[in-house]
Design goal:
Layout (H helix, E strand, L loop, with lengths): L7 H4 L2 E4 L15 H6 L1 H7 L3 E4 L27 H13 L3 E6 L9 H8 L11 E2 L20 E4 L4 E4 L14 H17 L3 E4 L37 H12 L6 E4 L6 H5 L10 E2 L11 H15 L6 E3 L8 H4 L4 H11 L5 E5 L19 H6 L41 H6 L4 H14 L1 H5 L1 E4 L7 E7 L4 E7 L5 E3 L8 E5 L6 E3 L2 E4 L4 E5 L1
The structure holds 1-deoxynojirimycin (NOJ).
Length: 528
């Protein structure tokens, strides 16, 4: 089934690849583009429609690619521009779209723009970044803190000013209020879209603009200094959503492309501001969803709350794992049964599902000893925060050394459980999590209601069950997910007839004489 060119980003299944950790073709221990190309048949078989590649641009890797030193090139550790063109071509041949990660809040401190900017106060690019004079006693211009810890201002001895970095000091913030900066970044968008890239994930969009007067944030109680402030002035400025409209205009010069914003906020109303069916970002992540405990009621409230705010105007995007948070397999107790229910939920809610590499085989969070930690967050906050490496460990392909990820020395350790959690083993096992994901995605592909239907939660159901219906003019599907390790019986709404679209073959849920019998951690999609 081919997805419509204008709505593929609503109906398709996205798969996030963290390039350093997916597949290494040249044995340097770091995943690369030829490695990803070699795994396209696997991804095609899984049934995904689009790949989101975390950054692949030249970078000194202070934040593992989220510190970009050149926006229109490929870091040699990942390959060459020819490799990228090849990936794009081969993915497209398989009907798989590719979206790139645009890191536009900041560049690397080694980006030529920043090198120029810091070279002198009179440099024409001085105003491309956010520079400010010290307060009396060489104190920073205000109280802003870096998300990664410490002050958000770095002193530049040679020019006698501070520059702003919302993240690491190697990631100076761009000044989006400067029209030349906008122009240059819009050209980056055009560069990749001209190549044929299908869209972008936009890093921390709500940080792009800051208070023009650089006013200090008010303090509040919190754990780390960053959490001890109301972020009134260093992010979420009223003009930022307007900036998204400008970005959208550029993207719309190329039909059929999409954008998904990372809005670092838990305030649903604020996240919604970045949306626009016609003139804002197509999708935005809402991380409230992935922060829910293993409780169907909590997921229901999270979805309902979001539906209410987005109304008709926006299409939700859901994810349970990414490169910044612990893998959901482990957050929910390393229980493969729960992983099946979580997958069924993610792939049947109204919204675009984003999978994170390895979740389809149940990869777990890895605990690293301090000396193996690479992530700047972990290096600063260990053991209080072990950092994000634990969800970025190499993909577990098979039971050969290093899980078949590399013939070299992997840049992050491979999980010790790869001998029994890997793709090769799960390929062979019809009851595996991998095959469960495949069947689920195939089922979603065939059902118009699952892909684009409206959603309504069923009120009359036992506590451990999440139950909803997805409806289009032509199709209605009821979804029942048993979150508990015990069997549950319920009475589904009356219907003329029911057909089972999907259930676990090893634990089939059954409809008998108007009653639905759900074995422990089972599920059923009923078409009526
Ligand atoms: C959000 C990205 O997801 C994260 O990995 C990165 O460290 C920060 N933005 C800074 O770019």
């Amino acid at each position: 089934m081919k997805l419509d060119n204008n709505s593929w980003w609503k109906e398709g299944v996205f798969y996030q690849i963290y390039p350093s950790s997916f597949a290494d073709s040249n044995s340097d221990g770091i995943g690369d583009l030829p490695g990803i190309i070699s795994k396209l048949p696997y991804l095609e078989n899984l049934g995904i429609d689009a790949i989101w590649l975390s950054p692949i641009y030249p970078s000194p890797m202070a934040d593992f690619g989220y510190d970009v030193a050149h926006y229109c090139d490929i870091d040699p550790i990942f390959g060459t521009m020819d490799d990228f063109n090849d990936l794009l071509k081969k993915a497209h041949e398989k009907g798989i779209k590719i979206i790139l990660d645009l890191v536009f809040n900041h560049t690397s401190h080694l980006h030529p723009w920043f090198l120029e900017s810091r070279s002198s106060r009179n440099n024409p690019k001085r105003d491309w970044y956010i520079w400010a004079d010290p307060l009396k006693g060489k104190r920073p211009p205000n109280n802003w803190q870096s998300v990664f810890g410490g002050k958000a201002w770095e002193w530049d001895q040679s020019t006698g000013q501070f520059y702003l970095h919302s993240f690491a000091r190697e990631q100076p913030d761009l000044n989006w209020r400067n029209p030349e900066v906008r122009k240059a970044l819009f050209e980056v968008i055009r560069f990749w879209l001209t190549k044929g890239v299908d869209g972008f994930r936009l890093d921390v969009v709500n940080y792009f603009l800051k208070d023009e007067k650089l006013r200090s944030n008010p303090w509040k109680p919190g754990l780390r200094p960053y959490d001890m402030q109301h972020h009134f002035h260093d992010k979420d400025q009223p003009e930022t959503p307007l900036l998204m409209k400008e970005i959208r205009q550029v993207v719309d010069e190329f039909p059929g492309r999409m954008t998904v914003g990372e809005v670092d906020s838990r305030d649903l109303k604020k996240i919604a501001l970045y949306y626009g069916t016609e003139d804002g970002l197509h999708l935005n992540f809402n991380f409230n969803f992935l922060e829910q405990p293993w409780n169907p009621g909590k997921f229901q409230s999270a979805v309902l709350g979001w539906e209410k705010i987005l109304k008709e105007k926006g299409w939700p995007a859901y994810t349970l794992s990414n490169h910044d948070v612990p893998r959901h397999m482990s957050r929910y107790g390393n229980c493969p049964e729960r992983a099946r229910i979580a997958a069924a939920m993610l792939l049947s809610l109204r919204g675009t599902p984003f999978l994170y590499y390895g979740e389809e085989i149940g990869m777990q969070q890895v605990r690293l000893p301090r000396h193996q930690i690479k992530d700047p967050v972990g290096r600063r906050y260990w053991p209080f925060h072990p950092g994000r490496d634990g969800s970025r460990t190499p993909m577990q392909w098979d039971e050969s050394p290093n899980a078949g990820f590399t013939a070299g020395n992997p840049w992050l350790p491979v999980s010790p459980n790869y001998q029994y959690i890997n793709c090769n083993q799960q390929e062979k096992d019809t009851g595996s999590l991998l095959n469960f994901y495949r069947d689920l995605i195939a089922c979603r592909k065939k059902s118009e209601a699952l892909r684009r239907g409206s959603i309504r939660f069923l009120k009359d159901k036992p506590e451990g069950v999440l139950a909803y219906e997805r409806t289009t003019a032509r199709e209605k599907v009821l979804i029942f997910l048993n979150f508990l390790p015990e069997k549950i019986e319920l009475t589904p709404p009356a219907a003329r007839s029911y057909t089972t679209l999907f259930t676990r073959p090893d634990r089939p849920a059954k409809l008998q004489k108007g009653k639905l019998f759900l074995p422990p951690h089972s599920l059923i999609f009923l078409k009526c």
